[in-house]
Amino acid sequence: MLDPKGLRILVELNSRGTITAVAEALALSLSAISQRLAQLEISAGVPLTERVGRRLLLTEAGQRLVEHAAGILAKMEEAETELEKLTGSISGVLRIASLETALGTILPKALPVIARRYPNLRIETQEMDPEIAIPALIRGSFDAILIDDYRYMRRSRPPELVTFPLCSDSIMIAMPVTHPLAGETIDFNLGDLAFEIWISTSAGSEFSELHAYVCSTFGGFRPDVRHRTDNFGVSLALVGSGCGLAMVPRLATSSAPPNVVFRRSADFSMDRTVCLAIRETSSARPALTAFQGVLQDVAADMQLELAESERWRRDEG
User: Which residue intervals define the domain HTH lysR-type in the entry (predicted)?
Assistant: First the structure.
């Protein structure tokens, strides 16, 4: 009998390439990984891996098994989901990968609610960019992921996944409070920022590509990006120090220094949708349904709070 956990490890090894990376992804020790692989080889009756130099590679038999593993694991997940539905049990472990802004805003409000309502449900979270999290979810490394989808750069959605929108999130322009366009009563167009210094994410990242596309398409300029970081908190600290402007999601604005303001240009607006994504084979799992319900309630409350905060700032202005 082939061990499902061993199959999962073999799939991860094929994807990640090293035992260390697999151990980090699955939160297992190196010895546990090695033992599971050894047991899987005994069950299979043929060598599944071979050491080439310092690397552990899959044999032809291991590669063939990986090709079948996805279907095997999907069928097992469907069976487990059916059993959970029969018992109505909301328990076990949910492994969640999340983009930075949702991990810092939505989940801190949702996790205490889940802990109170479902004390037998353990939630484990990890920050991860969507482009990495999506294939990890398909492989089974996580049970659910929080990702985003931008209006001008739609994310491809593999057929194995089901997505549920949580909230709409505006993209704001962060600038120092001393900037000439920082005042709430001052209107400006995106093109007026053509000669500004910008802060963006890593070159080649989805948000960086979106930033460049928006500025060139709607503002008529290529942004002069001099500072790059994938942490919006760091971006806002740089903005507060007068190092440049930045485009940031509204969910990231709560961590801003007091000397940073957020504006929208008069001629352009952009938003994204924050979504929960799960595998279709586990979509009826009671624990995931409960998790989804809490996230949607929390996200809805947060949107009302943000809207009220914006109305208050406009009235004060």
Answer: 2-59
